[in-house]
Write a structure and sequence with these properties.
Elements (H helix, E strand, L loop, with lengths): L2 H17 L7 H78 L2 H4 L6 H10 L15 H30 L3 H6 L5 H35 L24 H7 L9 H8 L33 H11 L27 H5 L5 H5 L6 H15 L13 H13 L6 H18 L10 H32 L8
Helix pairs in contact: 2-7, 4-5, 7-10, 7-13, 10-13, 13-14
């Protein structure tokens, strides 16, 4: 074949290939495609490995974050548990403090109204029972006599504080043990005394508020001739005191005639001093006293009994026949209607809670102070500097406890007075187990049957005498 034929054949094949749309790759192009395919596979493999590493890194990061969150959550739980334990401990401590305060509520009422509990402890430690022999006051001049009375008052105050201390120790569980350990832990006994004092002050505040209300009810509900006019407010003491005719009369010492308009005017203008006497009419039977015999009817006042019963028995209502040995009943207040809550309450009274089976000088003194304060127009406790309330409290206790033990007549009078108080204060005590009705029942039947038997025995004799033949008259 010639070269021209060969070339023609080559072009002919190329044309056919071109027309058929297929171009035969050259060796160079084949190598390029193979190299490109290899690089593409390597790239995909590298990309796949990168994505795998990324996913692993993401999982590791998530696990790390989860661990961190778990640690935070654990720390938060630990903190909450610690806070809860702290709150629980604080709650228990507050509960214990509240319990101690509740125990302290009794102390101002039955032990001491004015002397702080911590002072009682100090007096207990400092007490020296060996008293020095005092000289006869008859041989003393005026200055020495004054000093003598000051020493006597201080001595008596110490005795009262020691007695009050023993009442506190007998009332508050663990108090004596805490005092015994005071040498090693002074802070503990001081903290205990502070909590007890808080309870005592709180109770006094409650009693003052209650009596402000109840006294208005008692005086406003009296029979019309003896009723407060104008009526007293039960939410304020503002209109009380000597400016009000009824409360002024009750506050007036028995040595002054309140019914005299001139006397009333002088008292209100402070031309007559009323703060030098504790013998006020409110403390007396029928609210009248004899200046020449101050003990006659003293501490027999109806309002005093009502005050005691309101505080310690939660019932100050007294009917006319409940106050014995009182010839006049006009001043006795009519019973104040009690609320349904009061009538149906099954709560223990303070007397039951404190184990009071009888009236004590301390509780009478407490009621004297609160009654006198409730009659006044003082805005707040401790702000009325016109009257010595602490002196009144101490003197009432001394009236019972400092009397001459060798004076039989005085001791008999005081014993009878306390007995009378017990009868009035516990007039509503439980009589379900009393044998008195049975004794009365049997004795009444026995007496009346005996009387009937005597009448029956005497009846036949009278009948026979009536049927006996009468002697004929002499001719």
């Amino acid at each position: 074949m010639s070269s021209s034929e060969t070339e023609s054949s080559h072009h002919s094949d190329h044309d056919r290939s071109t027309r058929s749309g297929h171009i035969q790759p050259s060796d160079h192009n084949s190598h390029s495609r193979s190299s490109s395919h290899s690089r593409s596979g390597s790239s995909r493999k590298h990309h796949h490995q990168s994505r795998s590493k990324s996913r692993v890194a993401h999982v590791d990061s998530s696990a790390k974050n989860l661990a961190q969150e778990n640690q935070k959550l654990k720390r938060k739980i630990d903190a909450l548990q610690l806070e809860n334990a702290s709150n629980s401990k604080k709650s228990r401590r507050q509960g214990a403090e509240k319990s101690i305060e509740n125990q302290g509520r009794a102390l101002g009422r039955i032990a001491t109204l004015y002397t702080p509990i911590a002072s009682l402890v100090r007096t207990f430690f400092a007490d020296e029972t060996d008293a020095e022999e005092e000289e006869d006051p008859v041989d003393l001049d005026e200055k020495e006599l004054e000093e003598y009375f000051v020493r006597q008052m201080e001595k008596r105050k110490t005795q009262c504080d020691i007695r009050a201390y023993h009442i506190v120790a007998g009332t508050v569980p663990g108090f004596q043990k805490a005092v015994d350990l005071a040498g090693t832990d002074v802070g503990a006994i001081l903290s205990l005394c502070k909590q007890l004092q808080t309870g005592s002050i709180s109770a006094r505040s409650d009693d003052v508020h209650t009596l402000m209300i109840e006294l208005a009810n008692w005086l406003n509900f009296r029979p019309i001739p003896f009723r407060a006019d104008p009526l007293l407010l039960n939410h304020s003491r503002e209109l009380r005191g000597f400016k009000h005719d009824l409360t002024g009369k009750l506050l007036c010492p028995i040595e002054h005639d309140w019914s005299d308009p001139v006397v009333r005017s002088k008292i209100r203008n402070k031309e007559i001093k009323t703060n030098t006497s504790f013998f006020i009419r409110a403390f007396y039977r029928d609210e009248e006293g004899n200046p020449n015999d101050v003990e006659d009817g003293f501490l027999h006042g109806t309002l005093l009994i009502q005050t005691w019963r309101q505080i310690f028995r939660a019932s100050g209502s007294i009917s006319d026949d409940e106050i014995s040995s009182s010839p006049k009943v006009s001043n006795t207040p009519a019973p104040v209607p009690q609320s349904n809550k009061a009538r149906t309450s099954t709560k223990q009274s303070l007397a039951e809670l404190y184990g009071l089976k009888k009236v004590t000088p301390q509780t009478i003194a407490y009621c004297c102070v609160l009654l006198r304060f409730s009659l006044s127009n003082a805005k707040k406790w401790g702000q009325d500097r016109s009257f010595n309330y602490e002196g009144l409290y101490n003197e009432i206790i001394d009236y019972f406890e400092a009397a001459d033990p060798e004076d039989e007549e005085v001791q008999k009078h005081l014993a009878e007075l306390l007995q009378w108080w017990n009868e009035q204060a516990f007039a509503e005590e439980d009589a379900s187990g009393s044998l008195k009705p049975s004794f009365h029942f049997q004795s009444t039947l026995e007496e009346q049957r005996s009387a009937k038997a005597s009448i029956t025995a005497a009846a036949p004799t009278a009948s026979n005498d009536a049927n006996a033949p009468t002697a004929s008259a002499p001719p």
